[in-house]
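Researcher: Please generate the 3D structure of the following complex. Treat every line as part of one assembly.
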Amino acid sequence: MLESVLVANRGEIARRVIRTVRRMGIRAIAVYSEADADLPFVREADEAVLLGPPPPARSYLDAEAVIGAARRTGASAIHPGYGFLAENASFAARVMAEGLIWIGPPPPAIEQMGDKISARNLMEQAGVPVAAGSREPVTDAAAAQAEAGRLGYPVMIKAAAGGGGIGMSAAANAAELRAGFETARSRAERFFGNPAILLERYIEHARHVEVQILGLADGRVVALGERDCSVQRRHQKVAEETPSPGITPGLRHRMQAAAVRAGEAVGYRGAGTVECLVDTAAHDFVFLEMNTRLQVEHPVTELVTGIDLVEQQLLIAAGQPVSFDPLAVTVSGHAIELRVYAEDPRRFLPSPGVIAEWTEPAGPGIRVDAGYAAGNEVTTFYDPLLAKLCVHRGSREEALALAAEAVSAFVITGPKTNLPFLAELLESSEFTSGAYDTSVIARLRPAPG
Amino acid sequence: MAEIRAEMVANVWKVVASEGDQVHDGDTLVILESMKMEIPVLAEGDGILTKLAVAEGDVIQEGDLIAVIG
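Model: Done. Output below.
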């Protein structure tokens, strides 16, 4: 087994990975920026190394600084968490070239799935359904108009190298496409260093449902159920649940089979997620993208399967069998995750600041993956995720009731948080009915004017 | 005359308008950035942009003056 793992991330996910690493008797090494020196993950690791100043480019995204920290501490493996360097194929290759174990998929799999256009083309060849869309990058506004004409409006404009919903927008007509295309290009260039854009036919009433897969050390790929991530603001997830209340057993079965084919097509190893859009009217699905890393919302899968996904990542990276029988995975009960963000609950605008009080809910069926504690400062440098509040009960109704109790028991003062919004979501008939789609927040918070 | 002030702590990513510009309600004046999010600051009403109090790269606090439309 591995002797030590350097966790190249921060906040809640660093803390969560460190927890499993230490439980397995492996030495956990944290790395941190000057802004994060007081956060719980730094304290809870066996060893912690300062990477550099707060801006991500000079700390968590600085590959040389991370590799240097691994060398100095004699780390045997690197776990990248999500975001930052997690889906950077050249960083993964660099880690391996240093003689370290990369806790993630093979670099070529990251690369093939990292470009949305190549991923779509590859999936289509593998027999995974994709939405009508671009087979090559759309380079200018005129080409975009021609492509949209071929696909038919409305279309979705996306950055080929993108993620996190950045630069993504829907266009209902040529004028919206002109504006959206320019914005998408400038953001793609700025955030991802690659201005390539693709267009896809937009599905108006869709659920966002994803399948968790694990590529085992022996080459098999298994699916561990789905997560419904349709509750989103600005194309970013706010709440997730499993099982999805919006798909039939038949559709679930087809999606899991497609996700396994997707993983097999790229020789996948470790934890990955195949994201799909489910057309609620047509009861059908298309491949959206594959995330070649541990997903933020992985805890809901862990709660209903009883499988620690980080443990499986470590076992697979060490070339060992997983801790469960891949042919006998069962899903028990219902789990919901609510993302607690440092943002105002009306307009969802960022709200940094020093945390005065932090009291987490606790009790049977409640799990809180938190990145902060009282006294910590939430800065403007990183994303606004403070904690993930997860609940697990026998049925969806019971899980909803427990979630509402847990939200009201969660006290955070200092920065504004979206806890009041989460309480509202749990009371909304659209969410509680289960018959919601990706526009549920837009309906709860109509744009002014 | 209308003052536009910051609603939150943020970094000034881009200054889109210039002092002396004729601006219209809803025009983007400045784009702020905080917690990996871009936040456009919009003109609230028509007029001349008489003052632009921020520059690209500035860190501004809640309540700081961003612009004045006369």
